[in-house]
Amino acid sequence: MTKKEKVDDIIRILEKLIPDPPIPLDHKDGYTLLIAVLLSAQCTDERVNKTTPILFNRADNPYDMIKMSVDEIREIIKPCGLSPMKSKGIYGLSKILVEKYGGQIPDTFEELEALPGVGHKTASVVMTQWFGKPAFPVDTHIHRLAYRWGLSDGKSVAQTERDLKRLIPEEKWKTFHLQMIYFGRKYCPARSHDWKKCPVCSKYMRRELRGKEGVARSKK
Questions:
Q1: Measured distance CA(111)–CA(117) in Å, rounded
Q2: Which of 2, 99, 141, 155 is the most buried (most CB within 10 A)?
Q3: Integer Cα distance of 105 and 107 in angstroms
Q4: pLDDT band at 217; cut points 50, 70, 90
Q5: Phi and psi at residue 48, in whole multiples of 5°?
Q6: How many Å apart are CA 179 and CA 114, to the nearest integer?
Q7: What pLDDT sits at residue 213?
Q8: What is the pLDDT of residues 26-75, one digit of tens each?
Q9: Which phi and psi (to 5°) does residue 39 adopt?
Q10: Which residues are identified as catalytic?
């Protein structure tokens, strides 16, 4: 089987199991999506979705956000972790959006990644999910699946992103990214994973990982 045939088969599996994946972070516009993605760093989407209604009830736009202090923002977002850094990022990017962009979020990687607290992954989510522009957000979970399935030998998230962009048709990037997230949660978790029961790993998991998982289960 060629690499293309393998990728096409994985795409078919994910499209069958997860045909219409929603964006996991609750939002109403580009700004609230940007804030939600920023908060999701090292935090579950479930926790973010419980926290953002409280934050957005106080400020769901950059103008209202900068009326709050960094300390006030930090108190609200504490459940999401890394609150000192995230609160400074939220206040700082909101101030720039007001002063430089008339309250609107920019639609280029360069401008988004120049905002405080906004990294490449966060910018990628906003670019593809809000602006509909080509981007393939890769977090540690997608990085893990791509390696597990033999789609990337990347030693970094950046390399995995390059590999997935090369292998996956551009018109499928937006959906495939979300399908991988939901598939990983339901069928292919990092722990307590039985590769023989996984619709993808049962066919394509790296051989060396199969042995390691078998040993790990036998020790339990």
A1: 12
A2: 141
A3: 7
A4: very low
A5: -60, -45
A6: 28
A7: 61
A8: 999 999 999 999 999 999 999 999 999 999 999 999 999 999 999 999 99
A9: -70, -25
A10: 121, 139
Q: What's phi and psi for 103, nearest 5 deg?
A: 85, -5
Biggest CA–CA distance in the chain, Å, is: 59
Q: Please report where in the chains the tokens 């791509």 appear, as a residue.
A: 146
Contact 157, 137 (CB under 8 A): no
Query: Would you say 23 and 178 are in contact if contact means Cβ atoms under 8 Å apart?
Result: yes
Residue given tokens 């393939």 in the structure block: 136
Length of the chain counted residue by residue: 220
88 and 70 Cβ atoms separated by less than 8 Å: yes
Contact 7, 200 (CB under 8 A): no
Domains and CATH numbers, the chain: 3-20+137-218 (1.10.1670.10), 30-129 (1.10.340.30)
For residue 184, how far is the Cα from the chain centroid?
A: 12
Supply the pTM of this predicted model. Answer: 0.91
